[in-house]
């Protein structure tokens, strides 16, 4: 995965895709005593294992409210995901492929995919639907669509960025349980997102679920609380969409040579680089190669199915409430959350 961050940038540059790629690392602020202890433990474990080159920053190096310090991971890059997708689509079309948008896949079997506009025949079929797979009968219980929403603020002055201590190419988060994530964009906005939108009955996916005013307002408030040195923020852009969450929260890659059907997904929001790795792995599997990629432990992994409704609805939304409660528990007690500890086995931790 560390090498894949560089591979995304290399592949984009080779294809001539302008996507604001800049590798500046990520800062995860520790804004409470439990978060600070977890940060220290994480860096110590990384040093012991010798895999991630994490750095533990002290309070003088960070500028978030109440930050005791932060974990800095250099193996992270900022990118404009929409520009990357559009650029890669153009590159694929320039190589002779045809992309059929507004075409709904309804069913697949060996050698064919039935769509609402006709049947496509192919020797190899790759299922790469992520959260949208839940809209198909064949993947409905294999993946759960969990919404994550984002905002982009107005461009901020350089003086503000100096106060924040966030450089171009850097992304940021903190150690809370209900995940947040942000980046400094190429045009000096904060692009900021997080969980908080509820799961919808029956794994329903609708355009209106991409925009929830309550969640957008919460994201603005979270930024203002996290960085009190910010001016009043405006959410000039708002968007969202469903992530793909497998039952054990483990991504996987599969390919059956007998049927010619492959699958990749379950990235739980970490898909920008993971999809690159999955694509290269599938290419090796489909062409019958035995490589380091095809021997990765996620190859052939099969997550269990999600429970039927109403258990799926109750469990997904209870998990959301539990992570919110876990953050409140840590703020109130100053100790690691018992709620989060109880939930960990249920979310693959």
Automatic annotation (TrEMBL):
It comes from the Bacteria. Gene3D superfamilies: D-Amino Acid Oxidase, subunit A, domain 2 (3.30.9.10), FAD/NAD(P)-binding domain (3.50.50.60). Residues 4-285 form the FAD dependent oxidoreductase domain. Pfam families: DAO. SUPFAM superfamilies: FAD/NAD(P)-binding domain. One of its GO terms (cellular component) is cytoplasm. This is Glycine/D-amino acid oxidase-like deaminating enzyme. It comes from Microcella frigidaquae.
């Amino acid at each position: 995965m560390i090498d894949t961050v560089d591979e995304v940038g290399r592949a984009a540059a080779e294809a001539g895709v302008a996507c604001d790629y800049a590798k500046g690392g990520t800062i995860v602020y520790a804004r409470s005593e439990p978060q600070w202890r977890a940060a220290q433990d994480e860096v110590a474990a990384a040093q012991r294992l010798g895999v991630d080159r994490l750095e533990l920053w002290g309070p003088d190096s960070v500028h978030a409210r109440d930050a005791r310090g932060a974990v800095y991971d250099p193996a992270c890059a900022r990118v404009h995901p929409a520009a990357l997708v559009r650029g890669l689509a153009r590159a694929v079309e320039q190589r002779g492929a045809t992309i059929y948008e507004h075409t709904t896949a309804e069913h697949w079997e060996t050698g064919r995919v039935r769509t609402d506009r006709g049947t496509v025949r192919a020797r190899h079929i790759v299922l790469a639907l992520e959260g949208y797979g839940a809209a198909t009968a064949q993947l409905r219980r294999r993946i759960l669509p969990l919404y994550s929403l984002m905002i982009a603020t107005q461009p901020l002055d350089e003086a503000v960025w100096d106060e924040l201590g966030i450089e171009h190419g850097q992304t940021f988060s903190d150690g809370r349980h209900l995940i947040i994530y942000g980046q400094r964009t190429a045009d000096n906005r904060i692009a900021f997102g997080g969980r908080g939108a509820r799961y919808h009955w029956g794994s329903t996916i609708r355009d209106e679920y991409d925009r929830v005013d309550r969640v957008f307002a919460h994201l603005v408030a979270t930024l203002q609380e996290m960085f009190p040195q910010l001016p009043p923020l405006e959410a000039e852009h708002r968007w969202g969409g469903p992530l793909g969450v497998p039952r054990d929260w483990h991504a996987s890659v599969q390919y059956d040579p007998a049927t010619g059907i492959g699958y990749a997904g379950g990235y739980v929001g970490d898909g920008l680089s993971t999809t690159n790795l999955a694509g290269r792995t599938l290419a090796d599997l489909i062409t019958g190669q035995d490589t380091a990629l095809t021997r990765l432990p996620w190859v052939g992994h099969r997550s269990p199915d999600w429970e039927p409704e109403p258990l799926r609805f109750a469990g997904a939304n209870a998990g959301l409430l539990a992570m919110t409660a876990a953050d409140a528990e840590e703020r109130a007690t100053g100790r690691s959350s018992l709620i989060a500890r109880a939930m960990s086995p249920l979310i693959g931790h």
